[in-house]
What does this fold into?
Amino acid sequence: MKVTVDFDQCEANGICVGIAPDVFELDDDDNLHVHEAEVTEANRADIETAVAQCPKAALKLS
Ligand code: SF4
It folds into this structure.
């Protein structure tokens, strides 16, 4: 399973970065990057929380 970002929806508010900083990063130009798209036992809880908390529903697991 992987997490994907709908960049048309993402407003770069950094909520997912705060929840899962090992997975998501905002660069200096406010572009979101996904460092660990693959869901693992170690990052699963954080990724699921980020997906649930994204106010733009821009994160999806598939
Ligand atoms: S929480 Fe959602 S809207 Fe905010 S930076 Fe992450 S993907 Fe984008």
Summary: The chain has one domain: 3-61. The chain has a mean pLDDT of 97.
